[in-house]
Amino acid sequence: MRWTRILARTISELSALGSRRVWRRPGLRILLYHSVGPTVAHDSYGISISVALFERHMATLAGSQWLSVVDIDPKQLSGSNMRVAVSFDDGYKDNLYVAAPILLKHRIPFTVFATTSFVQQNSKEYLSPSELRELSTLPGVTIGSHGATHIRLLDCDDGALWEELHGSRCYLEDVIGAPVTAIAYPHGSVNLRVADMARRAGYTLGVCSRCDINSENRNPLLLCRSEVLAEDSERIFLQKLQGAWDWYRWRRRDPALPQSVATHGFYC
């Protein structure tokens, strides 16, 4: 574990020991996963969580009395309780073969944000078009876009950005035969310019990787998510659910701020 992760866990442990009045804030918390199982060949970042640990995470969600498990939907931004949604980035095969059975068993809806070039490459790691179509037909599953090539969108000129957003959406809609209206910005690379282009490309919802809970005043095209890593025990998972890790949002600029338009680039 890198020293930065050790420091982050230490701060979060101290936060968890603090006043519980800041915990369990009402709003929509979106969990960010990637792979479940040993699908990722070279996982130096720790995005591939074990099947057993993922099962325990989902059992914790399903058994919680103080939160509601919901779809990612702008309508879920308002309310007096905590709502939790589950999402996956990239479009790994294990989302269909490993994660989906666990989520269906616990009746937990989830969203898979697929990168279209990954879907097209006939890879052992990523969903094929037929597998993505099969996944889209399961109860409670929503398919969203994760861009066309997984490039940082802040690095794109307007033409390339339009293809990443609109092109990927059209391809996915052709594959699954259903509307695609949600986007997860690759690398969390987004600002107001990118979000506005996403709106014009037909998206009504956008998510990034800035750690926080979302309230009703949050731009639905700039929703925050809480990333879950392979090393997150049930205790750490519960801390993230309850908000003890929300301080982590300060390490990344908020793309909803107007001054973000003038910055060279940042990731949220």
Structure description:
Strand 8 (182-184), helix 7 and strand 9 (205-207) form a beta-alpha-beta unit. The protein is an alpha/beta fold. Helix 2 packs parallel to helix 3. It has one domain: Glycoside hydrolase/deacetylase (TIM Barrel, Alpha-Beta Barrel). The protein has helices at residues 3-17, 51-63, 94-105, 116-120, 129-136, 158-176, 192-200, 234-242, and strands at 27-33, 35-36, 48-49, 67-69, 82-90, 110-114, 141-145, 182-184, 205-207, 226-227. It is built from eight helices and ten strands. Strands 1, 4, 5, 6, 7 and 10 form a six-stranded parallel β-sheet that branches. A two-stranded parallel sheet has the order 2-3.
In short:
The chain is an alpha/beta fold and 268 residues long. The chain is built from eight helices and ten strands.
**Low-confidence blocks of residues:** 259-268
CATH class: Alpha Beta
Helix % is 25-40%
Count, helices: 8
Could you spell the SSE succession in H and E letters? HEEEHEEHEHHEHEHEEH
Structural class: alpha/beta
Largest sheet: 6 strands, parallel
* Radius of gyration from the alpha-carbon trace, in angstroms: 17 Å
Q: Tell me the name of the CATH homologous superfamily.
A: Glycoside hydrolase/deacetylase
Number of domains: 1
| Approximate shape | globular
**The CATH topology is what?**
TIM Barrel
CATH architecture grouping = Alpha-Beta Barrel
DSSP strand count = 10
Taking all residues together, what is the mean pLDDT?
A: 88
End-to-end Cα distance, whole Å, is: 22 Å
Classify the beta-strand content into a percent band.
15-25%
